[in-house]
Amino acid sequence: MSTTSVLFDLPGPRARRRQRIGTVVGVLVVIGLIALALWRLGINGQLEAQRWAILFDPASGVPQALGEALVNTLAVAAVAMVAATVLGALLAVGRLSEHAWVRGPVAVVIEFFRAVPLLVLILFCLLFLPTVGVPMTAFRALALGLTLYNMAVLAEIFRAGILSVDRGQSEAAMALGMRKSQVMTLVLLPQAVRRMLPVLVAQLVVLLKDSSLGFIVGYIELLRQARSLVEFFNFQFGNTYTFQLYVGAAVIYIVVNVLLSQLARIVEARTRRSAKTAATAEAELPADVQMGGGGGAVPV
Amino acid sequence: MQFLSDNFDLMWRAFLTTLSLAVTSGICALVLGTVLVGMRVSPVTPLRGLATFYVEVFRNTPLTVVFFFLFFGVVYIDVQFPSRFVTAVTALSLYTAAFVAEALRSGINSVPPGQAEAARALGLDFGQTLRSIVLPQAFRTVVPPLGNVWIALAKNTSIAAGFAVTDLTAALQRLANANADKLLAVFAAIVAAYLLITLPSAWLIRVVENRVAIVR
């Protein structure tokens, strides 16, 4: 029995009739709203087929440009994800170190990068680092900013994962005579990563969402590309294709993210089934981390 | 310090803009999120479907895209916002409501089923059960996650800067252009201003959490 159905009785005949009427009315209202929106669009001439055709017509250069922008988006997300995973694992190990002089600074680093709004972090990379002699491009600033924030988040995720591995595992490894580093790399980390895999993929969705901040710092990702395409076409045709291009870019973003979310769900289902990894209760990202843009962590 | 006092006025106004963005959207998101979660657990299937659809769409849409759409897209269905501030508040509220609903749903799931069963046994209907039994308890357990959503919202207001709302991040960009030699001070001041919102919030959340926690 699902947890929600405890909230209400199975509806009887009268309630069912009321619900059916309500459903019909609700559906009519929703259809009405959609029709209203479509009608306004139609009046403004936004639904004409030739306006939408530009999204699929290779001769206009639009599909290529959007495809390139999608590759750019995925590229920055991939670079940041790989770097953040590696650095996050290192930080997690550092945070669990037995030496206070390792543990302390690592904790400060993690807390700092989680506390700053992600956009401010990216702007810092973009504006400040060049003044101290680090060559910067929009791509590097975006990738670096995303890496710094996500490594801190992933470090916390990995730490929780490592701590969730049964204590007997490390005790047994120690009893076999392994060094501390061996216990970590051979016994604890593999189990923790496998256990945290669903959360890792979910974090990838968040990272991909955050890569849209590139729009603000001038990285040619999907939105920025749509904007420059619009400016380009406005020059020739006026406002003709603006709406179509924006919708195209937004839809690509949403489709890619939904696909990734589905992947996360599949990975989670597999992890839960597999006998090697006892399912963890905390297999989901907290709501504030899912919001992206720096999440809700503050140093305390 | 000279630099701080010179630009205090600009920063103070930017700070107030950020704060009012966060507070207004926070309240709207809380209301909308509560309605959404009520729909999501309701006995009426279409309402459940609608709320689930809403949450899924917004969870998978970058906030920048929501902003983008409200700023550049909705004029084509003849919707006009009175000001850029209102547009930004709308974008932030619509986006955050999905996450408020998610946080609240986990809270509702954590209320022991016996509570709702007892309420139904007493003859309360769905609305009464939710309003007077389940939601009050759910709200108490979700104070920490809801608080974190609020802090994340406060940080997310920075995206409004990309759409010509003069908040803290916009002030940052302006000051950084004007004071290229004092970049570190500019960044430190802006980060401090954000912390001025988030740190007291975190403290307040902890206090409220301790005050309302249910011992089970």
From TrEMBL, chain A:
Matches recorded under InterPro entries: AA_ABC_transptr_permease_3TM (IPR010065), ArtM/GltK/GlnP/TcyL/YhdX-like (IPR043429), MetI-like (IPR000515), MetI-like_sf (IPR035906)
Ranges of residues in domain ABC transmembrane type-1: 70-264
One GO CC annotation: ATP-binding cassette (ABC) transporter complex
GO molecular-function term, one example from the UniProt record: transmembrane transporter activity
Cell compartment(s), UniProt: Cell membrane
GO biological process, one term: amino acid transport
Keyword hit for Phosphoprotein: no
Top-level taxon of origin: Bacteria
Predominant subcellular localization, coarse grouping: membrane
UniProt keywords, alphabetically: Cell membrane, Membrane, Transmembrane, Transmembrane helix, Transport
Lipid bilayer topology: Multi-pass membrane protein
Keyword Ion transport applies: no
Transmembrane segments: 21-42, 69-94, 106-129, 141-162, 243-264
Protein family membership: Belongs to the binding-protein-dependent transport system permease family.
Name the record gives this protein: Amino acid ABC transporter membrane protein 2, PAAT family
Naturally occurring in which organism (per UniProt): Geodermatophilus sabuli
From TrEMBL, chain B:
GO molecular function (one): transmembrane transporter activity
A GO CC term assigned to this protein in UniProt: ATP-binding cassette (ABC) transporter complex
PROSITE patterns (alphabetical): ABC_TM1
Signal sequence extent: none
UniProt keyword annotations, A-Z: Amino-acid transport, Cell membrane, Membrane, Transmembrane, Transmembrane helix, Transport
Membrane topology: Multi-pass membrane protein
Domain (ABC transmembrane type-1): residue spans on this chain: 15-205
Record-level GO BP terms: amino acid transport
Compartments where located: Cell membrane
InterPro entries documented for this protein: AA_ABC_transptr_permease_3TM (IPR010065), ArtM/GltK/GlnP/TcyL/YhdX-like (IPR043429), MetI-like (IPR000515), MetI-like_sf (IPR035906)
Name of one Pfam family that matches: BPD_transp_1
Transmembrane annotation, as ranges: 12-37, 57-77, 183-205
The family this protein is said to belong to: Belongs to the binding-protein-dependent transport system permease family. HisMQ subfamily.
NCBIfam families assigned to the protein according to its UniProt record, in alphabetical order: HEQRo_perm_3TM
Name of the protein in question: Amino acid ABC transporter membrane protein 1, PAAT family
Protein species of origin: Geodermatophilus sabuli
